[in-house]
Amino acid sequence: MTATPDRTTPAGTAVVGARARRRGQRRDRVFEAAVELFVEQGYEATTMEEIAGRADVARTSVFNYFERKSAFLDEWSARRRAQAFHALGGPAPDIRLRDELARVMTELARLSDSSRRETTAMISAAVLALDLLDDHPLTHEFTDLLERRRAELRPGVDPTLVGITLATGYFALLRAWIGPGRAPFELDRRLIELVDLLLGGAVEVASGAEAGS
């Protein structure tokens, strides 16, 4: 019987850490295999068996990491959001709320534009397999940002409602942007227009600006 490593010792910690890294690497391999297949042949046409074969793991291993096929879509969306918000380097209190939101939208657009075929495959699948409008994590990301910048919103404006509207508008524009062939519009510009349109009715107007109007 194999002894369980003692996590309280340096050697035990190293063993546990190595196992966690290998598990993470296998999980990444399974995820990447799934995305490749979704792009190549479509989400509906791809089976968990094919994902296991592409990743060179047992079928049961795929289910250990992702209990259902739609979990790959959740993971892809989570990684995309993490990339976008991480690129900002954390909260930016020295810039306006509008500019911080514009930076997020610009980065989301850049990621989509740099992998248009993949984005098309994954968002098309998400529209069919997930409810993008039902308490989506992106709504919470936007709402948290707005809560931190609540002082810039007009009194009585609900950050959650603004967050829901931003996330819903983002997915609507992304859905219109994806597809075969040339993009129908510049995604980053349209997303910034969404921010400006929404915040035009939500951002607190400075007293000096009111006096000069």
UniProtKB/TrEMBL annotation:
Gene3D superfamilies in UniProt: Tetracycline Repressor, domain 2
Q: Which residues bind DNA?
A: 47-66
> Keywords of this protein's UniProt record, alphabetized?
DNA-binding
A Pfam family this protein belongs to?
TetR_N
Any stretches that span the bilayer, and where are they?
none
Recorded hits in SUPFAM superfamilies, A to Z, give: Homeodomain-like (SSF46689)
Q: Domain HTH tetR-type, which positions?
A: 24-84
Could you state a single Gene Ontology molecular function term? DNA-binding transcription factor activity
Q: Does the keyword Ribonucleoprotein apply?
A: no
Q: Identify the domain of life.
A: Bacteria
Q: Which InterPro entries match?
A: Homeodomain-like_sf, HTH-type_TetR-like_transc_reg, HTH_TetR
What the entry lists under PANTHER family is as follows: HTH-TYPE TRANSCRIPTIONAL REGULATOR PKSA, HTH-TYPE TRANSCRIPTIONAL REGULATOR RUTR
Q: Protein name, please?
A: Helix-turn-helix transcriptional regulator
- Species annotation: Nocardioides albidus
The record lists the lineage as:
Bacteria, Bacillati, Actinomycetota, Actinomycetes, Propionibacteriales
